Amino acid sequence: MKRITVFCGSSFGTEEIYKEQATLLGQTLAKQNIELVYGGANVGLMGAVADGVLNEGGKAIGVLPNFLRSKEIAHLGLTELILVESMHERKTKMNDLCDGVIALPGGFGTLEELFEMLTWAQLGLHKKPIAILNINGFYDSLIELTKVMVEKGLLKETNQQMLLVSDTIDDLLEQMKNYVAPTTGKWIDKDKV
Fold first, then answer.
1. Does residue 5 sit in helix, strand or coil?
2. Most buried in the list 20, 46, 70, 154, measured by CB within 10 Å?
3. Three-state secondary-structure class, residue 30
4. pLDDT digits (tens, 9 = 90+) for 178-190
């Protein structure tokens, strides 16, 4: 993996461990020579993961919609800042640039980004590993919900297993490096889209 997209909150949240782990993830990516792709902001967990990468001499690429740049949240120390017109264009660009995805704690935006990437994988539009760093059990309820989706017949177990989960960075990166996507998409083949 050369580049990993990280989705996470633009706030720090209520627990210091979120910021600590976001910074450590950034540092670990840099030490493993993996470039960061993320939302381009200097605030919250987004800023912490970017600073972690940059402080270890790594590369951080931000993708930021123009309307957010005008709010002065753009990280000015990035290796590269790519400006786009819309949130959808942002996600598409982040997907194009990465070899895998990690979600840290976040709100609606983080979940929306995570689930769009999972949906694209389920449909066979990409075969990238998609992972959650489950810091201090933040995503326990969401993981349980995916199990309920399988039990109730609304999600195939093979698709539920596409979501890699760990509470440690090294284990999560190892899972991602060894990930093999399901051989069949939900309905379509990317080559036929």
1. strand
2. 46
3. helix
4. 999 988 655 555 5
Nearest to 7 by CA among 148, 152, 116, 105: 105
Q: Residue with structure tokens 């990409």?
A: 126
- Look up the pTM and report it: 0.93
- CA-to-CA distance for 42 and 48, rounded, in angstroms? 8
DSSP state of 190: G
Handedness of CA 132, 138, 144, 145 (dihedral sign): negative
Backbone angles phi, psi at 32, to 5 degrees: -95, 10
Residue pair 99/130 in contact (Cβ under 8 Å)? The answer is no
* Type of residue found at 141: S
Q: CB neighbours of 141 closer than 8 A, spacing ≥ 6?
A: none
